[in-house]
Amino acid sequence: MVNCLVAELNDLTIVQAHEKLVKKEFSALELTKSFLDRIFDLDKKIFSFLTTSPDLALSQAKKIDDWILENRKIPLLAGIPLAIKDIILVEGVKCTAASKILENYIAPYDATAVRRLKEMGAVILGKTNMDEFAMGSSTENSAFGLTHNPHDLDYVPGGSSGGSAAALASNFCVASLGSDTGGSIRQPASFCGVVGLKPTYGAVSRYGLISMASSLDQIGPITKTVEDAKIIFDVISGKDPLDSTSVDSPKLQATSYPPKARLAKDGKLQSIKIGIPKEYFKQGIDPKVEKIIKDSIKKFENFGMSVEEISLPHTEYALAAYYIIMPSEVSANLARYDGIKYGFSKKKVENLLNVYRESRGEGFGEEVRRRIMLGTYSLSAGYYEAYYLRAQKVRTLIYEDFKNAFKKVDIILTPVSPTPAFKIGEKITDPLMMYFSDIFTTAVNLAGLPAISFPVGKVGNLPVGLQVIAKPFEEDKIFEIGQIFEKMTNI
Ligand code: GLN
Predict the structure, then answer these.
(1) pLDDT single digits (tens) 291-310
(2) Which string of DSSP letters, residue by residue, matches 138-155?
(3) CA–CA separation, 377 vs 371, rounded Å?
(4) Which of 131, 325, 372 should be mutated for ligand 1, with most atoms under 8 A from CB?
(5) Nearest to 436 by CA among 287, 319, 286
(6) Stated pTM of the model
(7) Residue 264 within any structural domain of the chain
(8) Is residue 228 in some structural domain?
(9) Residue 212 CB–ligand 1 contact under 6 Å
(10) Which positions are catalytic?
(11) Is residue 216 in contact with ligand 1, taking CB distance under 6 Å?
(12) Pairing relationship of beta strands 273-277 and 411-415 according to DSSP bridges
């Protein structure tokens, strides 16, 4: 029975797969096996997975089939096969952060986001490739090999959650988790033509997420539809006693599922005011991307929403502030990998200092070492005021820009990235050029805001995403606007 269904099986959204599981059109075991087979057959070309966990996946699927046989009402995520970025811990499964220094590290417990997904019956297929410790925009910084963009194998899938986005775009899973410190969910989602949500800082627990830059990191869903992103977000979000920066979001608890689109009977849309920041359309953006973004904004306007130009005056300093604050936090967070406590340890070294030096020198890749050095420098006595402290002041100004803008508008629309996916090898030798691909995403992390990327067009066969930014804890508005776009364009 399953064989004739395989193509469709791998194509389903969470909502569709759930309906079919409940109707017993296939079992959770059949669904899981079809994904594992597909990964086994086709991932050689994409290299989106670093590890698969078939035993874990099949035993969870079996459990869900028992629930279905007992005619229990199953949660939306029960029996749904997911992929997890290899920086988020899944108990008993290798977690490398795509680094040689954690090559043999087995996660001793589940990240809270993973635990919550498992409790809802989700099936974990495995762990996806990424830039080492989430540092990068192309997944070329993985210590274990690069991931290809499924839309064109010569192109990068974006990064750092490139494996999670490419796995989904290849139909190797129904949805995945990524992490976003400066754009790492939204940019690969944009490059791979899928939906990626970076939640409000604190909305999702970071417990069990290997830290890159703790004041910026958030876990979020990568999905085929905005509706699916909401389903995962609802499960993984909320206060967790194990992460003191996590909080509950009262507004979200009040929203209904699926969120009511504000469509009046005449098809017009009411009361969402959209702001377009003029600074995001200055130089540097590919004209073809700009046209796609402007056309999609026009669609909202034609649909009856009010669109006005706004200003976020400190936008031009966001990337510079990010590339001071982020490496400063990286240098502190990565101090723990010393060749002693855990991870790779250089053997036959004559003294302790050299154990540190050689383990870190060999265990970390070039980009990670570069950022540790940059961060250590900007935190050091004599430079702290000039760099770190100044960048923090800029961060406050960026936050204030958004706060002022949100007095006038409900949501902000921008491009996700100045270009579509670029060629493998094109930017890897020029770190500054690579950093420039984060120009439209980092301000959101600095300000702690929620933002999504969803596909709105293509340049040739390469997808382009639109970024929707909202006030803190107003993910509901983001879901609403995204679902409206999907309805408008019949995605
Ligand atoms: N590309 C950005 C960087 O390299 C963002 C990374 C991320 O969000 N993890 O820092």
Answers:
(1) 999 999 999 998 888 999 99
(2) SSTT-TT-PPPBTTBTTB
(3) 10
(4) 131
(5) 319
(6) 0.95
(7) no
(8) yes
(9) yes
(10) 85, 160, 184
(11) no
(12) parallel
